[in-house]
Design brief:
By secondary structure, the chain is α+β, with helices and mostly antiparallel strands. The longest helix has 16 residues.
């Protein structure tokens, strides 16, 4: 059973350590200094951003991060996605990582995604789908989505997180079951 708690400023050293891990750094391409982590995660932790950051917990120990947002709250991101896929008004999006390399390859990614989707349906009853773009080269990420019952709904060019990546993204979608 995966548990969840919101990221707080006390979690920033852990996030910085995870972001430094080669299997995370390859795809997230994020600055890892304490200042950069505070700059980028602080507004969400303090509730100043509409997005939410959650630590995924296994036996009360953090193993992953999920960022969740309503796409309508991020107009630039929404504008980039719209030429690739139709985005309903209530659509949500997720970004995610497993921080400890030793926890990868054990089925935790799909379980984490499935659990967060269930929480999203509960927390956001107005939402009818979750849309997640993934750079096409990140096979582990899009396979986790497929195992969590997301379907590939589109593909197209989007700005990658890491400039070394080709802009081709697969866009996955999971609709709320009625």
């Amino acid at each position: 059973m995966i548990g969840w708690r919101r990221v707080t400023e006390d979690d920033f050293p852990l996030l910085g350590a995870w972001l430094e891990q080669p299997h995370v750094a390859r795809w997230w391409n994020h600055e890892t200094t304490p200042e950069a982590v505070r700059r980028d995660f602080g507004p969400t932790a303090r509730g100043e951003e509409p997005a939410q950051d959650f630590l995924a917990l296994l036996d009360d120990q953090p193993f992953g991060l999920v960022q969740r947002c309503r796409l309508i709250d991020y107009s630039e991101y929404l504008d980039e996605l719209r030429p690739v896929i139709e985005v309903p008004v209530g659509a949500m999006s997720l970004d995610y990582l497993i921080g400890d390399r030793g926890q990868t390859g054990r089925g935790l990614g799909p379980a984490m995604l499935t659990s967060m989707v269930a929480r999203t349906w509960s927390d956001h009853p107005e939402s009818d789908c979750v849309i997640v773009p993934v750079v096409a080269a990140n096979r582990a990420s899009w396979r986790a989505l497929e195992k969590a019952r997301f379907r590939r709904a589109a593909q197209g060019h989007l700005t990658p997180d890491n400039p070394i990546d080709d802009p081709l993204h697969y866009v996955y979608r999971l609709d709320r079951e009625v």
